Amino acid sequence: MRNRAILPLAAVFFILFVTAKFAINSFDVWETAENIFGVDDEAQIEPKVKKAFSASTTEPKCSLSRVCPSDHFALRITSGAANVVGPKICFDGKIIMSNVLNNVGPGLNIVLVNGRNGKVEKYGYLNMDAGNEEYILAYLKDIKPGMIALVASFDDVTAKMTDEMREVFVGMGSTLIKSIKPRDAWVFAGRAGAQNKSLLENQAVSDNNTNIYGRWPETVEIGGCILRTVTEHKEP
């Protein structure tokens, strides 16, 4: 009988010990949180903890491997495959142009974005085979400073490409546009009036010895984060 009485008593002591241990650890957790967030009120700490966890679990946009900083936009651009499958342009988590959306075409597929607020201003394609050279040049020159341009090639972009058109892209930060030749694949993300060269650019050269789509090379792709356009405020 004495042994039977000891067992419940031991269980009670064990429960009391675990409860006390948990309480001590809980106080340690809140004390640590107070040190991290600089507040001493649990009601203030809780929303800050939730915000920290929600920020860390945000999904990357445009299938990137990481989340872009808050002052950047996510993007991914894939060139067309030969003259069969159109390109794809994703910006800030949304597919803007693609073969599936049926809004791509031969030549230069371009998405123009307001670099400050991320609003897509216009998108479409410039037919570099049958298009009007004067219209194409006027369209490119009309891109205002600070605008972000996302560009993907489809089929061939050189038939109506002039040196003046290439210079427009140089002014957006392109370093490869001058080397683009017939049926090359090219993708680019830049900013009109850019002072720096863009790191978001790729090219696949058409070579009969290495092409994988007959007369066309493999598709090329870029993905990354592009900085928002910062408005400069001049002192009066």
Features:
236 residues; alpha+beta; five-stranded antiparallel β-sheet; four-stranded antiparallel β-sheet; 29% helix
Question: Total number of helical segments?
Answer: 4
Which term fits the overall shape? Answer: globular
Which stretches of 5+ consecutive residues score pLDDT under 50? 1-37, 48-56
Mean pLDDT, all residues: 83
Please count the beta strands (DSSP E, at least 2 residues each).
9
Report on this model:
This protein has 236 residues and is of the alpha+beta class. The chain is built from four helices and nine strands; from the N terminus they run ααβββββαβαβββ. Strands 5-4-6-7-8 form a five-stranded antiparallel β-sheet, with no helix packed on it. A four-stranded antiparallel β-sheet has the order 3-2-1-9, with no helix packed on it. A hairpin with a 2-residue loop joins strand 2 (88-91) and strand 3 (94-97). Helix 1 (2-37) packs across helix 2 (42-56) and helix 3 packs parallel to helix 4 (163-170). Mean pLDDT is 83; it is low at 1-37 and 48-56.
Task: Give a topology summary.
Elements (H helix, E strand, L loop, with lengths): L1 H36 L4 H15 L15 E7 L9 E4 L2 E4 L9 E7 L6 E7 L6 H9 L6 E7 L8 H8 L14 E7 L9 E4 L16 E7 L9
Antiparallel strand pairs: 1-2, 1-9, 2-3, 4-5, 4-6, 6-7, 7-8
Helix pairs in contact: 1-2, 3-4
The gist of it:
It contains four helices and nine strands. With 236 residues, it is of the alpha+beta class.
